[in-house]
Amino acid sequence: MTPKLPVISGQELIRALSKFGYAQVRQKGSHVRLRDLSDAHRRSITIPLHPSIAFGTLKQILRDARITVDQLLAKL
Questions:
Q1: Could you tell me which of 38, 39, 26, 32 has the C-alpha nearest to residue 13?
Q2: Which whole-number Å values give the CA distances from 9 to 5, 20, 37, 39, 41, in the listed order?
Q3: pLDDT tens across 1-47, in order?
């Protein structure tokens, strides 16, 4: 059984993804683009800087980053 997705803000998600090796590449408005500089095979990820990220959006971000919910919870 997979754990429930947490309710987190865009800033919290960016901090957690930075622990996985992602770095901010650019920002346009309220969206930040992150890229894993050590692994070129990982997709670039766009994070909305909202007070809380929608569950569907968070699920897709984790899928693109190839990170499980358990791994994310461990880094929060």
A1: 32
A2: 12, 17, 23, 25, 26
A3: 567 899 999 999 999 999 999 999 999 999 999 998 887 777 889 99
Question: pTM of the full predicted structure?
Answer: 0.87
Q: DSSP string covering the chain, please?
A: -PPPPP---HHHHHHHHHTTTEEEEEEETTEEEEEESS-TTSPPEEEE--SS--HHHHHHHHHHHT--HHHHHHH-
- Please, what CATH class does the domain formed by 10-75 belong to? alpha beta
CB atoms closer than 10 angstroms to residue 57: 15
